[in-house]
Write a structure and sequence with these properties.
single chain; 199 residues; three-stranded mixed sheet; 8 helices
Amino acid sequence: MDNMDGHLPALPHRRIAAGAVLLALVLVLAVRHMSGGGGGGAGTTAFAPAKAARPRAPRLLVVDVAGAVRRPGLYRLPAGSRIQNAIAAAGGSTRKAQLDLVNLAAPVADGEQVLVPSSGSPDAAAAAPAAGASPAAPLDLNSATAEQLDALPGVGPVTAQKIIDYRQTHGPFRNVDELQGVPGIGPSKMAQLEGLVLP
């Protein structure tokens, strides 16, 4: 009996020691899990967002801005720009500019020259021909406004807009014969326009 009494107290100490070791092990595992072992590195990379596709740069047009502007020269403008944007890129118009002779809302085409006439200049006279009259100098098909084209014989506002649309779709005219690609312009109209337009 004495031997049994001597061994009884030893059992709880071993169990307590084993329980303490087990508890310490559970705590260590729990701390590792909470500090990033489970939700950190591998989980983050697995669900990392995909890189967004790089947006394509907008197509640029090269435009020659001349005449009564502060800084004449070549300018790169985004596709869809208007005459007003081209003038603004050149520093704006000067005091002598006759902006009432320029269609500021007209879209610009690649390779086009935007000419801002100044008061008293020959450009201003050519830009505003008398009603029913032809311009004195040949009209540049690549820079002419709808109003200027409308003043040509046999060309009304609808055909003038078609010429501008054609220019925007196909690029600048390389020769006068390309006008025949514009809907509504046939041999008879080409004969009327002979000597009055140039590419």
